[in-house]
Structures are given as C-alpha cells and as structure tokens.
Design brief:
single chain; mainly alpha; Arc Repressor Mutant, subunit A; three-stranded antiparallel beta sheet; 3 strands
Length: about 150
C-alpha cells in the first residue's frame, strides 16, 4: 500500500481535527457545519450581522445549505433573521446574545486545542505550513458546498 499523498494527509488531518472538536460542539447541540457560520457572524463586527448570501460566500456553502443551517440555529435561539429595510428580499442573519456567548465559549476551547496542536511545530515549520496552506487555498476558486 502506498503512503498517502499530501492532500490525502491534509484531508486526514482535517477529519481528525473535526473529530476532536465534535464532542464539544455536540454538547452545545451543534455540528461542525454550524460552527464556521457562528464564528463568521461573531467576526462580522459589532452588529454580528451578515446577509444570507454574504455568509454563504464566506463559508463556502450554497444559499440553500445556509438556509438549512440557519433554520436550526434560529430554532435554538442562537441567531435571528431580519429583513432588509431597503430590499425586503434580502435577509440578514444576526447572532443573538445567547449566540455570542456560546461562540465565545466554543472559540476559547477551539483556540486552546489549536494552540496545543500547533505547539508540535517550531516557528519556521509554522510559517512554512501557513505559506503552503495559503498558496493551496488561493489556487482553488469558487464556493464549494462542504455540508
């Protein structure tokens, strides 16, 4: 059996990383698909608000995939939907106070786990990994539905 090629290794690392985070997300009633959406809203400035289309583009999912995720998060009281005052066809998603609190707790866990993982690399290795990941990411274009 031949060794995994680099992208296969990256896929395996991503799967292992996801598996490590799943129990913490599951405790909060979330899946790995919800986490990036909540984080993106948290990082959207003080309003914690983006349109469905903006969020879908940033999280690389389709608008229909975003709608399915938003339905669950709204039901859980983590986001609200707001119609745009200027164009009623546009829907904004906004984190609720409860959503902000949850994301902050989850991010604290995420950053601690990431720091632990990245501590296995020295500073030069970290820089090389970052540059290579940036180059690979920039070589791919267009939204991809990862859900």
């Amino acid at each position: 059996m031949s060794p995994l090629r680099p992208l296969g290794r990256l896929y395996r690392i991503a799967a292992l990383w996801k598996a490590r985070l799943e129990p913490v997300l599951k405790e909060s009633g979330l899946s790995a698909a919800h986490f990036p959406m909540l984080v993106t809203l948290r990082q959207a400035g003080p309003s914690h608000r983006l349109t469905t289309g903006q969020l879908a583009a940033l999280d690389m999912v389709t608008c229909s995939g975003m709608t399915i995720r938003a339905d669950k998060l709204e039901k859980e009281g983590l986001i609200t939907r707001e119609r745009d005052d200027g164009d009623r066809r546009i829907i904004h998603l906004r984190l609720t106070e409860r959503g902000v609190d949850l994301v902050d707790r989850l991010l604290a866990h995420y950053y601690a786990a990431e720091e632990e993982l990245m501590a296995t690399l020295d500073a030069d290795e970290h820089l090389v990994l970052t540059k290579l990941a940036d180059r690979l990411e920039s070589s791919l274009d267009g939204p991809v539905d990862l859900s």
